[in-house]
Amino acid sequence: MEQAHTRIRGRDLVFVGIMLFGMFFGAGNLIFPTFMGQQAGSHVGGAVIGFLLTGVGLPLLGVVAMGITRTAGVFSLASNVNRPFAYMFTVALYWVIGPLLSTPRLATVSFEVGVRRFVAPQQQTLFLAIFSVLFFAAVWFFARKPSRIMEYVGKILTPTFLVLLGVLMLTALLRPLGGLNHAAIGTYISHPLNTGFVEGYNTMDALASLAFGIVVIDTLRGLGVKEPKQIAANTIRAGVISMVLMGVIYAGLAIIGTQSRGAFPIAQNGGTILAELAEHYFGGMGSWLLAIIITLACLKTGVGLVTAFGETMHKLFPRFSYTVWAALAAGLPALFANVGLDGIIAISMPVLNLLYPLAMILILTALASVFLPAQRWTYTWAMMFGLIPAILNMLTGLPPTLQHWTVIPVLLHWGEMLPLYQAGFGWVLPAVLGFLVGAWVDHRHARRVA
C-alpha cells in the first residue's frame, strides 16, 4: 500500500515544476536577459549560452544537490559541515533573500517598472506605500497555507503569467522590429560568452534553489510521495522542468531584446525595453499588460520566498508557528519597500556576497559526495578553505567609504592575488584544494575503519 503512495502523476509533477519555475522567475529574470540581448547585438548567441550556464545551470545544480543528498532543506545540507554553521548559514540565507533584501524589492520593482507611469510624480511616494501594503497583503494571502502553494503558484499565478508573457514575446518574435545583426556593445564585443556568464551569475538564483528546496519537498510529501528516494527523484525532475522552461524564456527575451535595436535606442535597463515593446505592439493597453506581467512575476516569487521562510524558520524555531513567521516575512517587506530600502540593501549586499560562495561550495560538494564513501571532512575542509575568500568577497560589497577602513585595503589587496578574484570567483581554487584535502582525510578514515 505504501508503494502506491510513492508515485506521482505526471500532470502533478508538471505542476510542481511550474510552481518551482514561478518561484524562481521574478521581475529581474525578465529584465536581465532582455537588456543583455540589446547590448549583445549580433553576439547574442554566445551571450545566451553564457547566461544559461549560470542563470539556469547553477540553480539546477542546487535543486539536483538537494535531491541526490535526500536532505530535508538547506539546514540539513549545511549540517554536513556542522550544526553551528548550519544554523548561522540557514538563518542568514533566509533573512537576506527574504525580509531584508529580495522580498522588499519585489514590491519596489513592480511599482517602478509596471505602475509608476500611471501615477503623477508628486503622488508616487503615497502610491508606493499603498501599493506595497496591497502587494504584500496579496503575498500573505497566497502564502498563508503552504499546503496550497502548488494550487496558487503552480496552477493559477504562474500559468496566468506565462500566458500574458507569451502574448508579448510571441508578438515580438513573429513581428520583429529588426534582425540580429546589430553591433555589440561593451565587453559583449570581445567576450560575449563570459559577459553573459557573469550576467547569469548575478541573478543569484543558486541561493534561491537552496531556499526553495524545502517547498518542493514538502509539496511532494503533500501529494503522497513518502519514500526519500522518490522524493529525491521527483525533486530533480521538477527542477529540470522548471529550468527548461526558464531557459526557453531567457533565450526568447534575449532575442527580442536584440531585435528591439531596429526601432529603439540603447536603453538604461531591461524594464525600459519591455515597456517600449509593450507600447509599440499594443498601444495604451501595452502599459497595462506589462504592469500585470511584472506584478505577477514578483507576486509569485514573493509567495515562494515567504512560504520558504515561514516553513524553515518554524522548523528551526518551532516556538513560533508558521503563521507568525509568514506574517513577519510579508509584513516587514511592506515597510522596508518604502522606508530605508537603500540602507537595507547596503547592509544586505555584503552578506549576500558572502553567502553565495558558501552556497556554491555546499552545492558542488554535495554533488561530488555521490562518488565519495564518506563526506564529513570533505564538507568541513572545503568550507574552511573557501571561507576566507568568501569573506574577502563580502568586503568588496561594502560601501567605498568603509573599504578604506583599517586593515580592509590590505585584505582586499591579498584577495587580488587569488585567481578569478576580480570576477567574483576567488573562492573556487581554495575551495577545491580544501575539498581535495577533506576527501583525502575521509578516504584515510574509511580505510582505517575497514
UniProtKB/TrEMBL annotation:
<dbReference type="GO" id="GO:0015820">
    <property type="term" value="P:L-leucine transport"/>
</dbReference>
<feature type="transmembrane region" description="Helical">
    <location>
        <begin position="156"/>
        <end position="174"/>
    </location>
</feature>
<comment type="function">
    <text>Component of the transport system for branched-chain amino acids.</text>
</comment>
<keyword id="KW-0472">Membrane</keyword>
<dbReference type="Pfam" id="PF05525">
    <property type="entry name" value="Branch_AA_trans"/>
</dbReference>
<feature type="transmembrane region" description="Helical">
    <location>
        <begin position="126"/>
        <end position="144"/>
    </location>
</feature>
<feature type="transmembrane region" description="Helical">
    <location>
        <begin position="206"/>
        <end position="224"/>
    </location>
</feature>
<keyword id="KW-1133">Transmembrane helix</keyword>
<feature type="transmembrane region" description="Helical">
    <location>
        <begin position="354"/>
        <end position="372"/>
    </location>
</feature>
<keyword id="KW-0029">Amino-acid transport</keyword>
<dbReference type="GO" id="GO:0015818">
    <property type="term" value="P:isoleucine transport"/>
</dbReference>
<feature type="transmembrane region" description="Helical">
    <location>
        <begin position="379"/>
        <end position="398"/>
    </location>
</feature>
<dbReference type="GO" id="GO:0005886">
    <property type="term" value="C:plasma membrane"/>
</dbReference>
<dbReference type="GO" id="GO:0015190">
    <property type="term" value="F:L-leucine transmembrane transporter activity"/>
</dbReference>
<dbReference type="GO" id="GO:0005304">
    <property type="term" value="F:L-valine transmembrane transporter activity"/>
</dbReference>
<keyword id="KW-0812">Transmembrane</keyword>
<feature type="transmembrane region" description="Helical">
    <location>
        <begin position="236"/>
        <end position="256"/>
    </location>
</feature>
<feature type="transmembrane region" description="Helical">
    <location>
        <begin position="12"/>
        <end position="32"/>
    </location>
</feature>
<dbReference type="GO" id="GO:0015188">
    <property type="term" value="F:L-isoleucine transmembrane transporter activity"/>
</dbReference>
<protein>
    <recommendedName>
        <fullName>Branched-chain amino acid transport system carrier protein</fullName>
    </recommendedName>
</protein>
<keyword id="KW-0813">Transport</keyword>
<comment type="similarity">
    <text>Belongs to the branched chain amino acid transporter family.</text>
</comment>
<feature type="transmembrane region" description="Helical">
    <location>
        <begin position="418"/>
        <end position="441"/>
    </location>
</feature>
<feature type="transmembrane region" description="Helical">
    <location>
        <begin position="85"/>
        <end position="106"/>
    </location>
</feature>
<feature type="transmembrane region" description="Helical">
    <location>
        <begin position="288"/>
        <end position="310"/>
    </location>
</feature>
<feature type="transmembrane region" description="Helical">
    <location>
        <begin position="322"/>
        <end position="348"/>
    </location>
</feature>
<feature type="transmembrane region" description="Helical">
    <location>
        <begin position="44"/>
        <end position="64"/>
    </location>
</feature>
<dbReference type="InterPro" id="IPR004685">
    <property type="entry name" value="Brnchd-chn_aa_trnsp_Livcs"/>
</dbReference>
<keyword id="KW-1003">Cell membrane</keyword>
